Amino acid sequence: MNAADALKVLVIGGGGREHAIAWKLAASPRVAEVFLAPGNAGTASEPKCRNLPIAAEDLDALLDFAEEQDVDLTVVGPEAPLALGIADMFEAAGRRIVGPRRRAAEIESSKVYAKTFMERHRIPTARFEIASSEERALSVLAAWQGAPIVIKADGLAAGKGVIIAHDRAEAEMAVRHLFGGGLGVPVQRVVIEEFLEGEEASVIVLAAEERFLVLPSSQDHKRRDEADHGPNTGGMGAYSPAPVITPEIEAKIRERIIAPTLAGLNAGRRRFRGFLYAGLMITPSGEPYVLEFNARLGDPEAQALMLRLKSDLAEALLALCDDRLEGLELAWDERASVAVVLAAQGYPGTPRKGDAIEGLEGVEEEGLKIFHAGTIRSEDGRVLSNGGRILSVAALGENITAARERAYRRLAQIRCEGAFYRRDIGWRALVRETAVPLAGSAE
Ligand code: AMP
Ligand code: GLY
User: How far apart are the first and last CA of the chain?
Assistant: First the structure.
């Protein structure tokens, strides 16, 4: 460790999640410098932070930098470097890194692995079949009962590999699309699974082998358009906590999902160290099922969560890496948070880029933060759009209603040609907050 605790930290990635992580790390009195590879215009002007011209997938350059600078702690934001084995490389070099090794990250990078793992360890998930050819997939569908039917491509597909088919004919089309190279390259395998009814929510834990700390629940909004219409995206907004996750349901998630998942990974020599994200469907009867695992924090869930985190993030992540998680507690703001994403025209397809973003200046407000994502600073000092998700505005409030009002008020002051955002982030929680039980109703 560097002298007098002046920690050097490296954050890998350049999205809103990484801005939120870097901002929180920089707030630690123990941290002297936060490097981002590659970062964005927001991280470039964050105190203590410095962007590096290194891509998140350039593992050799990242390790070289960490060695040269003797970086104390590296935090991996996105999934791609984990799937490439960045944690294996850093750990082999004796460097602290937050993020699982490649084999443990397969819980996210391979849907087939994740589903068979869950089946083996009796972790509640949708009933499924795996097919390794188009022919086999079509024959599974021929015998399939029930609809809709969910078809998932194996491998990382940035949210584009999941198709919800309303009937068998649509499912057959989806299978032909995926095996026929509709995602760019033909898929090798698909998972065909039962459609689960309910409300989605996420529970993320900070895990070191079998020990874990549960972060507050959150809910993402994956569809591009209001009322959950339009194509899937990386996430258009998130809030925390998600009221659908009651304390009773959280207990079930710990016991039936998180603990057996970590135990199963460990038993299979896939020790998991980092953020384990369970994307869940909570059925109307209150049973949690796993839709997917991620081997990292969510984006924009991280923005909503980091705004609520009161503890020193650097301290917690050092404890994680040094196997001192036991006894560690994280303190969270009691208030709710809402993060709303501003996306570029064209997203989630090819986004329009290079437009000036106005309205970013202004005094810092307690409990409100603009996290940049696809932004870049031009030579003349303006901030320009540079990606699908441009930024997110995250705000705290006494409840979801108050937090979202704050976030939307700030967002309304930001202008960028062609950019758009969903105006209904948090609607499910809002329905709960504003629901008044009918007089004389049975409940
Ligand atoms: P995944 O990448 O597996 O989380 O799937 C992306 C999205 O598809 C999820 O966030 C859900 O909205 C939806 N989805 C996936 N699997 C199912 C399922 N079995 N039942 C209902 N919806 C699903
Ligand atoms: N927002 C969903 C994810 O990060 O996977």
Answer: 57
